[in-house]
Design a protein that fits this description.
alpha+beta; NADH Oxidase; four-stranded antiparallel β-sheet; 11 helices; 45% helix
């Protein structure tokens, strides 16, 4: 008889869905919000949960900039592609990679930072992304809806200037939080075989590529996921246009 897998506490492991699994399985991006403000104690709880995200050497190389000024929120919404939910969500944050704070801490004790620009960006991206995901999941666990805003990447350098971000702090993505005023459909994800590799990278087969297009078709209005890939990833697409802006922002913020 095979041994029974046990948890860290010594009890048997369960393969049944937990509240966490149910939470992540039900998550979706919400773009319409009720105007109800989020109580300060609820907001504090979300942010403290975000601080529990894994972070290399406990450096916590990220910052959240809460945008409460309506005029500033409007300018960011315009830069992000004139997205209404950026203006209307009860809470909106700009998530930043931040090694400026750790450099200040080192200098405060008389040291000199040895964090180069590439490591600053690499570690900052990881820390900020994990913390942002924890913030969103904490909000959703409390009944709020969220939507990440990649549109700020259209004008990263301008967003950084608007927020007076110092050297070695760069905005990555926005995050709307509020009570949902809609129930959007859950979008599909790629087949597990497309993202899981064992003992090395495996090139996708034509059959897997076709299956990927078939599964992801439901995420589009046209029924063809290639239209989305072409819009964002093909030559002349959104990502190519953002490349120039990213280079400019990296130089401006001291990451190059």
């Amino acid at each position: 008889m095979p041994p029974v897998a046990t948890s860290l506490s010594g009890g048997p492991m369960s393969s049944h869905p937990t509240p966490f699994h149910e939470l992540v399985e039900s998550r979706r991006s919400v773009r319409r919000y009720r105007p109800d403000p989020i109580p300060s104690e609820a907001l504090d709880a979300m942010l403290r949960a975000a601080q529990r995200a894994p972070t290399g050497a406990a450096l916590q190389l990220y910052s959240f900039v809460r945008i409460t000024d309506p005029g500033l929120r409007d300018r960011i919404a315009t830069l992000a592609g004139d997205q209404r939910h950026v203006r209307e969500a009860p809470e909106f944050f700009v998530i930043c990679a931040d090694t400026h704070r750790i450099e200040r801490l080192i200098a405060y004790r008389g040291g000199e930072s040895g964090i180069g620009p590439m490591m600053a960006l690499f570690y900052g991206l990881i820390d900020a992304t994990l913390a942002a995901a924890y913030l969103a999941l904490a909000a959703e666990a409390m009944g709020y809806g969220t939507c990440f805003i990649g549109g700020i990447q259209n004008h990263l350098d301008e967003v950084a200037r608007l927020l007076a971000l110092p050297r070695r702090v760069i905005p990555l993505v926005g995050l709307c939080i509020g009570r949902p005023a809609e129930e959007p459909p859950k979008k599909p994800r790629l087949p597990l075989a497309a993202i899981l590799h064992e003992n090395g990278y495996r090139e996708p087969t034509p059959a897997l590529l076709e299956e990927s297009y078939r599964v992801m078709a439901a995420a589009t209005r046209s029924g063809d996921w290639y239209n989305v890939l072409r819009k964002y990833g093909a030559s002349g697409g959104v990502m190519e246009r953002r490349e120039t802006v990213l280079h400019r922002a990296l130089i401006q913020q001291g990451f190059r």
